[in-house]
């Protein structure tokens, strides 16, 4: 087969050779090289035999020449093949030739040297055997070696690519075949103009090669290179086209350079396109891998989120249960504190004690709520519920709670309210108290000597409707290092002394900051290590002018109601819960009936027909939900007003009890004012209030009693204390004076009740009136 191919190719080459026998291309050289690359050294012998045959048949008659030329023509492709497979990292099929422009470049360089050397010997053989004259050695060498190189450039890639395509059995699409046919037709047209008509349009073939390289693969492009070369050689050899010159050598030079240009342009382009496609493929693969990784990671995250969610759910459930458990005993504490506070029999001093029990209990309740708040903040469900309330007594209440702690630590607590503070304001009272108690609590906790000052100032009035209030908590405590100031507002962040950290959780400031942010403010801090800290924030608080009337009414004590007597059924399995409501309602004229579970509750509803029912949810025998269901499905009981009172205060429980048929929700611990408000709403009753505290108003009439006035200096001390809001100190001082001199008693009796009721302003006015009297 090799011999036959060589024979055909040699004939073809001769057919298109120039008049003096010189040919532009020696295709067999390319074919041999391809065979060596594809099949290895073992094709050496077949090449030699085919060379012997064809040389003896077509070219030479004498044996030395035939042997010499055949030997040289066999050695030469073997050397080039060895060089290529060594430096091209190419496997035998030579598939990697067009994988990179570097490979094409190496191919070009490596096919040059061996033809040049071996041709030197071959031409020498011809001269020695008298087939050529030494005179033409140079010209023959040049034509021979270039035609071998050109044969390699055109035929080797073509054979390598087509053989490898053949094994790959590439399917051609019909649309591509049509497109390639168009390409060939265009090629024929250009060829006709270039090599028949004689127009210099040969280089118009280059765009066709580009087209082929971009649109088709290496197979079509190498084929096109062969076709174009063949047309150019055939035309030029026939004396047609722009490459035809007067000397054959010049014509050959032009033709060969044209063939080299189109071949190299195509190959480099194919390599670059291949490189690009490989890069794109790699990129696509990397993208796919990335997408795959993202999908896997998302699935992992989703799984982790689900685990976290269920852990969070478990935590929320735990918190809700804990809060329920803690609230239940607190109901007894707070309830009885309220009942005792309403008792007439209790002396003033004890009442004050009960007040403190109530305030501390309420604070404990706030702490329990804080823990719930944290889970709300984490779930982004914290909301504010602004309501109107009386600002001065609110602040005084906060001050009293904190003053107790400051007294315990023996540090001074200075309260400096602005003289022009509004009376009725709208804010979420519970949340504002929470923030202030947290900041003041921290200030006291982190101060061992000196004072904690609480300043409340009006800094700007927004028309009549709101005021900007600045709250400042200044301490002379341990202070915070500058680099730690940023961290303290993050949940669970505690800085500084380890010993003090055990007293807190690191949650307070995070919750407080969130609350102040919901009020459109920001807690800020300036602090110096070892000197003290100043925590402050400004918020706009709407003013409620109707408050004064409301306060008067609210501050007044309910002592009964007008009209017919009402009865209230309390269904609760815990006696202390029933007892709290009984002791709040019986003194003001209600009949209170008790039932320990839902079943007995239903029985008592039928037998005693109360005007209103207050029921717990979790109970033995029959729980509140079941009882409500039966009430709402019974024709006789359907119209009963049923209030659900539970220590489970989560919105969901509230909603569930309303959905189950409850008319309203009364959270535990039960607050007297909330209970009364609900009774007023559903029983439509008019309360009777205790008239104004005569004790206080009468004492303001100075002429009524003969009072021994303290000295001006003493009055001034008291005035200063009143201005600082240090009402407890005033009481202590008065008690000391009373013990020293009984004649101080009337004056002390005048001031002490005011101090107990946190009426700092009234005390100030009173003392000032004494001072003025003295001046007269
Ligand atoms: P807790 O007080 O429960 O630890 P907080 O969130 O209220 O948590 O406070 C976080 C941290 O900020 C505290 O642990 C403390 O290190 C620091 N800090 C807060 N207030 C003060 C203060 N007035 N003086 C010094 N350090 C303070």
UniProtKB/TrEMBL annotation:
The reply to whether Cell membrane figures as a keyword in the UniProt entry is yes
Q: Which domain of life is it from?
A: Bacteria
Q: Which residues carry this modification: 4-aspartylphosphate?
A: 616
List where the protein spans the membrane: 24-43, 63-84, 104-124, 144-164, 176-198, 218-240, 252-273
* Subcellular location per the Swiss-Prot or TrEMBL entry: Cell membrane
Kindly name one Pfam family recorded for this protein.
MASE1
Picking any one GO molecular function of the record gives: ATP binding
Top EC category = transferase
Cellular compartments per GO CC:
plasma membrane
Q: Does the keyword Transport apply?
A: no
Which InterPro entries does the annotation name? CheY-like_superfamily, HATPase_C_sf, HATPase_dom, His_kinase_dom, HisK_dim/P_dom, HisK_dim/P_sf, MASE1, Sig_transdc_His_kin-like_C
**EC number(s) of the enzyme?**
2.7.13.3
Membrane topology term reads:
Multi-pass membrane protein
Mind telling me which PROSITE patterns this protein's record contains? HIS_KIN, RESPONSE_REGULATORY
In this protein, which residues make up the domain named Response regulatory?
A: 567-683
Catalyzed reactions per annotation: ATP + protein L-histidine = ADP + protein N-phospho-L-histidine
Q: Which UniProt keywords apply?
A: ATP-binding, Cell cycle, Cell membrane, Kinase, Membrane, Nucleotide-binding, Phosphoprotein, Transferase, Transmembrane, Transmembrane helix, Two-component regulatory system
The Histidine kinase domain sits at: 321-545
Q: Which family does it belong to?
A: In the N-terminal section; belongs to the phytochrome family.
Query: Under what name is this protein listed?
Result: Circadian input-output histidine kinase CikA
- Organism of this sequence: Dulcicalothrix desertica PCC 7102
